[in-house]
Amino acid sequence: MSLPATPTFECLGVRLTVSGSSLVVVALNRPGSVRPSAAFFDDLMTLLESVNLLGCPFLVGSDFNIHVEDPTNPDAIRLAELFDAFDLSQSRRAYSPGLHVDSPRVR
User: Does 80 fall in a domain?
Assistant: First the structure.
């Protein structure tokens, strides 16, 4: 499946269709441990907008390299707000304090 260019992270998407029902699965990785730029959040919004326009449920598996376990982290807050805008929910919380969270988001 074709996805928009995302220079700030790597991604791969596939649309699965069975008996007329579809599910889009997107895997993405933001390499490195440097704080994400504003461009990262813009690229992520563009990606989510394009997937959302497909009109079917989707799952995003990711390695954002953002400490979402810290509720005061401004990048975690911005990421949560972006997910809320697309009605994405975290399907499981799997982390230990001090570690990055790699967890799928579904809608």
Answer: yes
Is the pLDDT assigned to residue 85 strictly greater than 70?
yes
Give the dihedral sign, CA 65/58/11/88: negative
pLDDT in tens, 52-81: 999 999 999 888 888 888 889 999 999 999
Rounded (10°) angle between helices 74-85 and 38-52: 20
- Structural domain includes residue 48: yes
Q: Which range marks the domain in which residue 88 is found? A: 10-106
β-bridge pairing 89-90 and 10-18: unpaired
Pairing of strands 21-29, 58-63: parallel
